[in-house]
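If you are new to this repository, start here. Below is one unmodified record pulled from the training split, so you can see the exact layout before writing a loader.
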Amino acid sequence: MANTDQLDNDNVFSVGVSSYGGEEVSHDGHINIQDLTIMIEENASQIRNDFLQINRNYNLRILDYLSKEIPDYPTPVEFHISEVTHVTNKHGFQEILNSEGFKAREYKDDTFSWWSLKINEENINEAEERYLEEMFPDRTQEQRENQETFLNKFTTSPAFDIQKSRYGNFRFTFPLNELMEAYKNQKCGVKDPVLRAYKTTFYKQEIMYVVLIHSPEDNEKFEKFPEIESSLLFDYNNDTIIWKAQAICENHEYQLLLDEENRIAETEHIINQFYVWDHVALAFHFNGVLHFPKEKLKESITCCEIDTINLSRSERLSLEEAEEIKHHYTSM
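And here is the target side for that same chain:
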């Protein structure tokens, strides 16, 4: 099977219920979307039967999305990210401030702290330029100057929305180098952490590539998972995450076309087409709490709205209510 970062053995998918109560299917290692589609189709019966064993009737809706005829869009797109976020609800926000850090939570018989990439407008603009250089390495200076921006029309999946979140109203944001340094000093005996292609996990429409970050002391425990150096979808270099995003739209409203001057031009697509979307989750492995000074935690917190899908298992606070709570606790 080409273009995968999966394990050498032929593991079938594992199924279960996520911490948010929804059905979750995963495979060890990272698998690109094309090969993942084939594997899901080949193992559909096994996946459905395994869910029946845990009293869940699962219809593999993701196959409906993957089989759609999708208009051309930019893929893959390489993003270079240097900030990460951890979003939580009101209870989690209070707990983080009280414990002065991030507590690892149980997942698949182990404990992790989960973080997402924070992708801003500058990251998108830089990714657009890299995409153009890859597509048209012989562009003239005039073509470069006349090229209208286009990538922000396509980066519409939840992975790019920093104003909303499915996980709560309270967003902690850290420079990746500061988070890695704290983890290195507190959980790795001052040795460099190890990054591995841990899981490809999918839900109804979402594909999550989990990157495991662990202490070198746990190399034997996690040695079956490929190290990131050989990953086709993800890299880590100079405190920067390099993510090769495959499905950036979720809802496709535009089609990628070339105009008469060989420039990229997008045109509105009349019928909206929903598709899968992919993103990266960082799973820091440790026990206990990853500590930060309380003032640093307070400086890192911003508020966001809860998205249409609310996985936070808490009340949906308005942005104004969240800001009031934030002000109350950060002014203490």
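Two things worth knowing about this chain: Confidence is low (pLDDT under 50) at residues 1-9. Residues 24-32+61-330 form one domain.
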